[in-house]
Amino acid sequence: MIPGKGTRAVGGPVAVGTPGAALARRHLPASELEARLGAAGDPANPAGFGGMVARDAAGAPPVGLAALAGGPLRRVFAPRDDSERLDLDQALLVVRVAARRDVTVMPATMFNITAVTQVLLAGRPDQRARVLAVTEAGGALGFAGLEEETAGLFATRCQLGREGSGHRLDGGKWLVGLGEDPDGLVVLCNDGGRGPAAFSLVLLDQESARATRSPSDSRASGFRGVSFGRFHFAGLPVRADQLVGGQGEGMEITLRSLQVVRLVSLAANLAGCDTALRLAWGYAVGGADRRLQTGPDAVTRQDLAVATTALAVADLVSAVAVRAAQVVPGWAATGAALAKRLVGELTSEAVARCSDVLGMRGLLTDGPLRAFDVVRRDLAVARYVDTSPQDLVRELGTRLDAAHRVGGAGRPADTGLVPRVCALDGDLPPFGLAAFTLASARPDPLVPALLEVAPTIQAGLTELGDSGRDALTALTALLTELGAEGRGTGDREAAPGSTASRVDRHCALWAGAAVTLTWWHNRGLPLFGLPPGSVDWVAPALNLVLDCARGGRFRLDARSAEQALVVARALLDGDRLVSAVALPLVKRGAVTRGNAAECLAAAVPQR
């Protein structure tokens, strides 16, 4: 899957039979890519943080990094054949490895994920073959979708009208990713129907796409090397064989494909947050720029503890959501929406805490910490990829209400599904786009299962000393909250308040279920760089999500904060990804790619 002769996994081989050996083998593609890209902190590495800063300052795309990592990233969602396809949890880690060095590498290589997924989902064999060939060659297929400058969401004015035996396309599209020089374009347009069936998808070839592109484009404050194009159609002829799927199926195809987009794009939040936390930690607890002999003060310690815990919970939520999408694809629509909301809020809080640790140093465009400002701006843009937070809350409110109507408190738990979802070293069923649906055809697989096995988990936690008792206290409180919530189904009477507060309460409780069941089904694995069975990460994670469920704002008590700092030291001082998988990272100085001048020349392509 990951090319590169001579590349080896970071950290050396893992002996067969040792705890975590199967997990390490499962994520070998990510480890190989990490080794191939070299040390992110090495100033002489164009695939590192220095290259990211140089490109941002020049407003240049990450051409060099995309060349190194683009093949693996493109094949995450568009493999040449099924034997190359990674499971979604493997894909998430591969993307994180590249994006932690520069989040912009995702739009530079993966903005066409929506268009390609749409065609793979509903296109004819010749259309699928065409887009796979474009992707394999490193080309870009744009999606001119829901965004229009003068129309609201789902109110597109771009029209597909009849003309003779074919159609004609009129109107415009705005903020089209990879719109600068596309090799093709998928356009969502209004075909004159009514309701959800009023939309169709059209696949334009390279000539038509480039001919209809407006010379002006838009750029965001983040993702500075990525342009967002405009397209204008004035009676563009469209043949019947250019439709993707049937007429009137465009919105359904788009919304189904966005489930995959949401799940894979979680990597942007996780990767950027990892880099932000790594920079703040290095500054606060012994980096070259600030060595505090007595250690960080209490406020700084709390901020770092909360940031670490928030990222750890976001990592677990992402892992469970992507694995559940393959095990229970009928629930993927709700799972992807839950994960997007949770991961967006958790990583935003973590980056804000890191920003407070750094103070003005984190906002400067020069100096040793200027990479933090780049990451902060990139993540602000990533927050709005595929939908706004407000639209996401409305969608989740509707989904949770529907789940409550059809899957109430009396529904038995499907405990057989949970180990397949939560055992992180376990294999997954084959990935299939066709199984992704719009409606949540299956109930929540996690919350009822947690309530079912809770007594066994509680008994096990009592044997783990003080840390276990802290986790047990938090778990007991979580179970009480879940019971009051009508088994986590979003009961309006049990959780009064605005849609946003009700949604966020449910999201927090669901995150608690994900945390608990992931720990329970991986007790023999060294998660978060800690010994197997450790609960040092469990108690802070549960306390944090419970505080959020009760309307708090990401607080940890003193003991949980100290436990969280144990996790931070294991991961950040130990040069590991802030993840349950805790992938070893290439250490600074381990790879030499040339001097600083060569680095900048490679990082910023000449125009």
Protein described:
Among the domains are: 142-244, Butyryl-CoA Dehydrogenase, subunit A, domain 2 (Beta Barrel); 268-431 and 444-573, no CATH class. The chain has 21 helices and seven strands. A hairpin with a 2-residue loop joins strand 2 and strand 3. The protein starts with 20 loop residues before the first helix and ends with a helix. Helix content is 51%, strand content 8%. The chain is an alpha+beta fold and 607 residues long. A four-stranded antiparallel beta sheet has the order 2-3-7-6. Strands 1-4-5 form a three-stranded mixed beta sheet. Residues 248-371 form the Acyl-CoA dehydrogenase/oxidase C-terminal domain. Keywords: FAD, Flavoprotein, Oxidoreductase. Belongs to the acyl-CoA dehydrogenase family. InterPro entries: Acyl-CoA_dehydrogenase (IPR050741), Acyl-CoA_Oxase/DH_mid-dom_sf (IPR046373), AcylCo_DH-like_C (IPR036250), AcylCo_DH/oxidase_C (IPR009075), AcylCoA_DH/oxidase_NM_dom_sf (IPR009100).
